[in-house]
Design a protein that fits this description.
This protein is of the alpha+beta class and 405 residues long. The protein is built from 15 helices and 10 strands. Helix 5 runs parallel beside helix 15, helix 7 runs antiparallel to helix 11 and helix 11 packs parallel to helix 15.
């Protein structure tokens, strides 16, 4: 890479499990560089841990919206959808006290106690899915057999919607998160269908609140005399369903692929299953296939390491590059299953960190526990360098994860 080269995102490694060589070069020589997005727009790209953490921790800056005129778009004109181009019509407060209030209300559901209560049901579901995958014969696609359906069942239960509609949820999520597969018209149509579906669910839940997250928020709103508006409830339900299954479904496949690509990792877990918790966080840190990174729009001038970024700049924070920063992580390019502490930035940090990270960790731990116990001889059915990434997906992912046992 020459110093004056203009890089185009996303940066890709030689295979979907490897980091691109440019990350190390950028962290060392040009940690704040100008890059081109698929839209053709330019953005500032942050690759060092301290820079990424500082910007993500700053409550002043959030993802750009349609109101942020001049913000860099990810998707080309006419492609992608609300999540891709920053013009999301999901009505969620994302700045200041309204955002903190929303997080407090919705965050009450994602407690450690509730995750512990959900865990036995997750285990039963994962076991049933593995049994069904085994009955189907080998080789099998672990992503289709376990990675996708498990998070769908879990998030549907949390939101009180039927898992039988999972194929529709998958289509709607993909339309929101893929910047190359759909046209703008197709994404808007998917949004309208999704909003109509969730609007009907919210109306039914208002009439008879249940024990799901939406019912909990509605009941507490009545008791306290204030709460989320219908639009905010709609944005919450839609956002959680997309984020609550698409990212985890892809991470399950990537985690298992990383552990099986070097089978000594899998064998170490078989010998020491107590490492599952730290191994999950290490997989989250080690994942090089995290898509585009998080965008932030600067509404005022910011100085980072002596360099001034003017107001109106769009910044892309590369969490996977930051997670390989040797100044923070010893042996950063090795997958150290016992790594602790592990302050990776995969879930973000600060006031906009991932609200459902405890749920995601629980699902990943359950997946690994069940697979180690039920399929100890699990292995990839193809060489790791033959795995294919999902093109254009904002959160990164593998098309399939072929396995045998």
């Amino acid at each position: 890479m020459r110093e004056n080269d203009l890089l185009r995102l996303p940066l890709l490694g030689d295979n979907p499990l490897d980091p691109p060589a440019e990350w190390e070069q950028l962290r060392g020589r040009c940690p704040m560089s100008t890059v081109e997005l698929p839209s053709g727009d330019k953005a500032t790209y942050l690759t060092r841990y301290d820079h990424v953490k500082a910007l993500l921790s700053d409550p002043r800056f959030v993802r750009p919206t349609a109101e942020d005129v001049g913000a860099a778009r990810i998707a080309p004109e006419g492609a992608g959808g609300p999540a891709a181009d920053g013009s999301s019509t999901l009505t969620l407060p994302d700045r200041g006290e309204p955002h903190l209030k929303w997080r407090r209300q919705v965050g009450k559901y994602f407690t450690a106690r509730r995750m512990t209560a959900l865990r036995p049901g997750m285990v039963r579901t994962a076991e049933d899915l593995v049994d069904e995958m085994v009955r189907g014969g080998q080789p099998a696609d672990l992503k289709a057999g376990l990675g996708f359906p498990l998070p769908v069942y879990v998030i549907c239960d949390i939101l009180g919607v039927p898992a039988a509609d999972r194929d529709r949820f998958s289509h709607w999520s993909d339309a929101f998160l893929n910047v190359s597969r759909y046209s703008g018209d197709q994404t808007r149509a998917a949004y309208d269908e999704f909003a109509e579906y969730m609007g009907a669910h919210i109306a039914a839940t208002r009439a008879e609140p249940g024990g799901d997250l939406i019912g909990m928020v509605i009941r507490e709103s009545k008791e306290e005399g204030q709460g989320l508006t219908d639009d905010e409830l709609l944005g919450t339900a839609m956002g959680l369903l997309v984020a609550g299954h698409e990212t985890t479904a892809n991470m399950i496949g990537k985690m298992v692929a990383m552990l099986l690509a070097d089978r000594t990792r899998w064998e170490r877990l078989l010998a020491a299953p107590t490492l599952v918790r730290t191994a999950v966080d290490e997989a989250l840190r080690f994942d090089a296939n995290l898509g585009f990174g998080l965008r932030r729009y600067l509404t005022e001038e910011v100085e980072i390491d002596g360099e001034v970024l003017p107001s109106g700049t769009t910044v892309v924070c590369s969490m996977p590059s930051a997670n390989r920063d040797e100044s923070v992580f010893t042996d950063a390019d090795d997958m150290v299953l016992s790594r602790s502490p592990n302050p990776h930035l995969t879930f973000g940090v600060g006031p906009h960190s991932c609200l459902g990270q405890s749920l995601a960790r629980t699902e990943l731990q359950v997946t690994l526990d069940v697979l180690l116990r039920k399929l100890p001889s699990l292995q990839l059915a193809v060489p790791a360098d033959e795995l294919k990434r999902v093109e254009g997906l904002l959160v990164g992912g593998l098309r399939t994860v072929p396995v045998r046992w």
